[in-house]
Specification:
262 residues; single chain; 6 helices; disordered N terminus
C-alpha cells in the first residue's frame, strides 16, 4: 500500500510530510486507514519534525472521540519514522486524556522536551495560574513516575478530565493514588489543573462521587508553587471512572466539532 494510492488529505500529505511515502511492510494498515478516514475531526496541537526529516512527533485532538465511547481520551500522541532513502514510513500512536501525558510519551520516544511544548502562538485556552503550569511540567517530565489507573473525559457543559494515577515516587508512599483534575469552561480563555492525594483508589472514587469538599492536597509540594492554593472545590457529579476506553481511534461518521481543542 502506498501513501499516494490513499489520496492522502492535506493533513497527512502536507502537515505530516507523508506525500510520496509508502507505509512500511508489517505496519498496522487498518489503524492508519482509520486515522486517514477520521482526518476531518483531527486537529494538530503539536507538530515537530527532526532536522533531518526522519522523525516526526505529533499530538492530535480527536473531536469525535467521546461520541462513540463517552469518556474516551481525546488526545492522540503519534510518532512517524521515515526511511528517507526507501521512501517508507512507520508510525506509532497512543491515546492520552491530558496533554502533558501525551508529551511525556513523545519524550520517551526520543523527542526533545522543548520541541513538543505547546507553540507560543497557540490561541486556545491557556493555564490559569502558576500551579497549573507547574503540575503540567511535573506530568510532562515525569519519565515513568506515574502509572495511569483510570481516566474520564467529560466534554459536555463545564469540561472536565479526571486522571487517576499511581505515583511511584517514594515521597508519595503514604498517598500513592493521585487524582489530576483538569477543568475548563467553554467560554473561558483559561483552564486549571489540580492534584489530589488519596491512600486508595476507592477513596479517590468516593471523592469523585460526592465532591463534598475540596480536592485533598498532597503532602508533598511542587517546587515553585507554595504560594498557590492547591485545593479547589469541583462541581457535583454522580459518576465514577468507567472502564478504560480502547486505544484505537473511533470508527464512524465524523461528529460535529463539539469537543475541546487545547
Amino acid at each position: 500500500m502506498t501513501a499516494p494510492d490513499l489520496d492522502l488529505p492535506g493533513l497527512f500529505a502536507r502537515d505530516f510530510r507523508l506525500d510520496g511515502y509508502t507505509l512500511a511492510s508489517g505496519s498496522d494498515e487498518d489503524h492508519f486507514l482509520g486515522l486517514v478516514t477520521d482526518h476531518t475531526v483531527l486537529t494538530p496541537l503539536i507538530t515537530h519534525h527532526s532536522p533531518d526529516g526522519a522523525r516526526s512527533y505529533l499530538v492530535l485532538h480527536d473531536g469525535a472521540a467521546t461520541w462513540d465511547v463517552p469518556g474516551t481520551a481525546q488526545l492522540i500522541a503519534m510518532t512517524i519514522t521515515r526511511d528517507l532513502d526507501g521512501k517508507t514510513f512507520r508510525f506509532q500512536t497512543e491515546r492520552y486524556p491530558v496533554l502533558p501525558l501525551a508529551q511525556q510519551w513523545l519524550i520517551a520516544q526520543g523527542a526533545d522536551a522543548d520541541a513538543v511544548r505547546v507553540p507560543a502562538q497557540w490561541s486556545g485556552p491557556k493555564p490559569a495560574d502558576a500551579l497549573t503550569t507547574a503540575l503540567e511540567e511535573q506530568l510532562m517530565t515525569s519519565s515513568g513516575r506515574y502509572a495511569v489507573i483510570d481516566h474520564f473525559t467529560d466534554d459536555w457543559g463545564e469540561h472536565e478530565t479526571s486522571v487517576l494515577v499511581h505515583d511511584n515516587d517514594p515521597a508519595s508512599a503514604e498517598q500513592p493514588c493521585r487524582l489530576f483534575l483538569e477543568q475548563w469552561a467553554p467560554d473561558s480563555s483559561t483552564y486549571t489543573l489540580r492534584e489530589g492525594a488519596f491512600r486508595t483508589e476507592d477513596a479517590a472514587g468516593e471523592w469523585l462521587d460526592e465532591r463534598d469538599g475540596p480536592l485533598p492536597e498532597p503532602r508533598t509540594t511542587t517546587p515553585g508553587t507554595l504560594a498557590v492554593p492547591r485545593a479547589q472545590t469541583a462541581r457535583a457529579t454522580t459518576r465514577r471512572f468507567p472502564p478504560l476506553p480502547p486505544s484505537s481511534p473511533p470508527v464512524g461518521p465524523p461528529a460535529p466539532p463539539s469537543g475541546r481543542h487545547r
